[in-house]
Amino acid sequence: MEAYLYETLEKSKVRCFLCSHQCLVNNGKRGLCGVRENRRGKLYSLVYGRLIASNADPIEKKPLFHFMPGSRSYSIATAGCNFRCKFCQNADIAQMPNDQQGLIIGTTFNCEGVVKDALNQNCQSISYTYTEPTIYFEFAHDTAKLAHSYGLKNAFVTNGYMSSKALEMISPYLDAANVDLKSFSDKYYKQMCGARLAPVKETLKQMKAMNILVEVTTLIVPGLNDDPEELHAIAGFIANDLGPETPWHISRFHPTYQLTDRDCTPVQTLKTARDIGLEEGLRYVYLGNVPGHDGESTSCHHCGSLLIERWGYVVQKNRIKEGACPGCKTVVYGIDISA
User: Fold this and answer.
1) Quick one: average pLDDT of 105-110?
2) Angstrom distance (rounded) from CA 161 to CA 93
3) 64: helix, strand or coil
4) 293 pLDDT more than 90
5) To 10 degrees, what angle do helices 137-149 and 111-120 make?
6) Confidence class of residue 291 from pLDDT cuts 50, 70 and 90?
7) Helix residue ranges, H only, 150-192
8) Tell me, what's the pLDDT at 294?
9) DSSP letter string, 82-142
10) What percentage of the chain's residues is helix, strand, coil (to nearest 5)?
11) Which residues touch 211 (CB under 8 Å, ≥6 apart)?
12) What is the side-by-side order of every strand in the sheet holding 24-25?
């Protein structure tokens, strides 16, 4: 399928405007994502409707804790990514085209089939996840638009590197997003991910301005982004630039892909990060990949009452009434968050 958001230049080159890389792609070549190809001056998506994953997941797995908690979300992905994270947890599919000489595999779906499957599996939303939804933007956009017409909501799990043009295009149909804020260091982004920090910060601010529900995730990698000064900077940015109601998920690193020279993140490091988030004024700070520890449940930021009790991805009890704490009546940030 011909891609969205590009222009043709001289000598059959094209400039892609889908993400902040803004790749200049020569004739016969692909962009950095490995799934958009220039064919004689026209840019084509090679992954439209070629799903490499499709599952009905708990929405908490995204993780989205303030977006229809306890519901199921039909989750889809294609191969490819516009980042090259050395710690990629889904490298087998996200890095497939770049690691395997352009290989792209997947099962053919159309938008109607995705929406039908979501409804048949009693899902209340569709999540574009596992890999980076920006790189299969055309299919995500068309599916999201159709999903809205059937009463389904849409969520992106994203690295936040989409362009302003792409975000404006998807925004009428995008209800929520969990955005990775991988570090507050441009050096880290360049060395570990092959990207830059500034566009991610701008995407986050733009999403909040568009009233998209935003939750932020930071994977804490020992020795790389776990310094308390950096954690304060991340939490301070979220609290001050996005708003103290914005949930922050602090996730545990496990050695994988090209980053196997260090151990898993100590639980105490995660707890310290959570304390820093609360100290900076964030109302909702969660620990990820460590089920059974404090930091999974949602409490009222005003009176401290337990509101949503979780174990891993499972909501065990939801006490929120009419979008607020049943005790002190303080409003809880979220979409369809009541029991």
Assistant:
1) 97
2) 19
3) coil
4) no
5) 50
6) confident
7) 164-170, 186-188
8) 80
9) S---TT-TTHHHHSHHHHTTT----EE--HHHHHHHHHHTT-SEEEE-SS-GGGGHHHHHH
10) 30, 25, 45
11) none
12) 6-8, 14-16, 24-25
- The pLDDT tens digits of the residues spanning 25-58 come to 999 999 999 999 999 999 999 999 999 999 999 9
Which pairs count as long-range contacts for 165-168, CB under 8 Å and 24+ apart, including other chains? 165/5, 165/17, 165/18, 166/4, 166/5, 166/17, 166/18, 166/19, 166/134, 166/137, 167/203, 167/206, 167/207, 167/210
CA pair distance 109, 313, nearest whole angstrom: 28
> Domains plus CATH for the chain?
6-45 (no CATH), 50-291 (3.20.20.70), 297-339 (no CATH)
Strands 53-58 and 125-128, sheet pairing? unpaired
Cα dihedral 45, 49, 50, 54 in deg (nearest 10): 140
Helices then strands, counting H and E runs in the chain, come out as 9, 18
Residue 164 tokens, joined = 């302003």
Question: Are residues 86 and 26 in contact, defined by beta-carbon separation less than 8 angstroms?
Answer: no
- For residue 292, the model assigns a pLDDT of 77
3-state secondary structure of 193: helix
Place of tokens 């997003």: 177
State the amino acid at position 139 in one-letter form.
Answer: F
Query: Within 10 A of 211 (CB to CB), how many other CB atoms are there?
Result: 9
